[in-house]
Description:
The chain is of the alpha/beta class. The chain has 14 helices and eight strands.
Amino acid sequence: MIFIGAILLFLGIGDLPDAWRIGLILIIVAMVALMTVPFVQRSRQRRAAAAGSPARSDPSPVADPPVADPPVAPAAAPAQASVPPVTEPDRAPATFAAGLASSRRTLRDRLASIRGRTPDAETWESFEEALLGADVGVSTTMATLDRLRRTAAEAGITEPDDLMRALGDQMREVLDADRALATSAPGRDGATAVWLFVGVNGVGKTTTIGKVGHRLSSSGQRVVMAAGDTFRAAAASQLQTWADRCGAELISGSSGADPSSVVHDAISAAAARSADVVLADTAGRLQTRKNLMDELAKVRRVADREPGAVAETLLVIDATTGQNGLSQARAFAEATDVTGVVLTKLDGSAKGGIVFAIEAELGLPVKLVGLGEHAEDLVDFDPDSYVDALLGVAGEPQPSGGE
Ligand SMILES: Nc1nc2c(ncn2[C@@H]2O[C@H](COP(=O)(O)OP(=O)(O)OP(=O)(O)O)[C@@H](O)[C@H]2O)c(=O)[nH]1
Ligand SMILES: [Mg+2]
């Protein structure tokens, strides 16, 4: 500003013709405008990072090889690394029944009016509302109820409790996918197995890696973690805390490094140490950002090269986001050949029906479920326990789950 003032003073006392003065003033205005652009951009990035949104600039699409270090994105303001304290020894283990208590309560409330009545149009409406309220989704709800109506007519079902049982049976039939977690890629037995974790921001990718690492290490497996989120400054230290807790080795790169290169380094280190599995973290990204999805596809391709082989690409979905999880799943499946879903934050969500929608509509198996923030709060998805916990099927004993 002092500089501009001095120039204006000079213009004022100088002997220049008017046209020269106007020209000089225009040049100064243009220079000031150009100087403010980076400040505005930086403050926008800071605001977006503080709000936890994926305000990263798109990395330029890079051809497959070489893998080594092109800068990918400018460092964002470090977001808080969130790692819960170590679990107290007497803490009760997470269960489906407790995790789905809120979904079950919502469903029961909506179905309360049909109890004791012969099924009629209102009964079906209540069922529809209840399933939609549990986030089963429109098309899956309609298909489910069409089939249930047919079953009810054929079997002469008149009691609402029997209808609930029939619904439970029907759901179990749909949830029949193979949900075993692969310890090697098909046809690549000698290669180092990689489990890649992908998903939008804040869904629980890093926490899930911590939980999976805890589980695998506890069963005697040698785990290497790859800090493939090179965008968020605090991401590597968050993963380091989890790695330290479960005795895994962490391989990380510098902030802004190419995530493919970090994952590749981790796989080489794991192969050299004969580790059983590499758990690779990735930065959260919106499924609508094409360049970021291309970057993820590249990470997967690089991870699948010798000496590694991608055994699992696990899409992490936050159960509380409901139906948006379906569009995330479609886009990520297209970019990275998703082999299974980890559904996190099912604890406290009233939208537990999303599991059914994911499997019925997309055919993706839900393999793991997060029921809390702690290392032990991860369970294998079990259709029977899920259906029982969601519907609270009459006649079957249900743990209270805090209800
Ligand atoms: N209640 C609950 N919280 C969870 C669960 N999984 C993760 N969280 C919490 O969700 C928050 C985000 O978890 P992160 O693991 O950092 O998520 P992320 O997907 O790695 O996030 P970005 O790397 O920023 O994209 C943390 O506070 C976790 O403790 C879960 O199953 N239940
Ligand atoms: Mg993370």
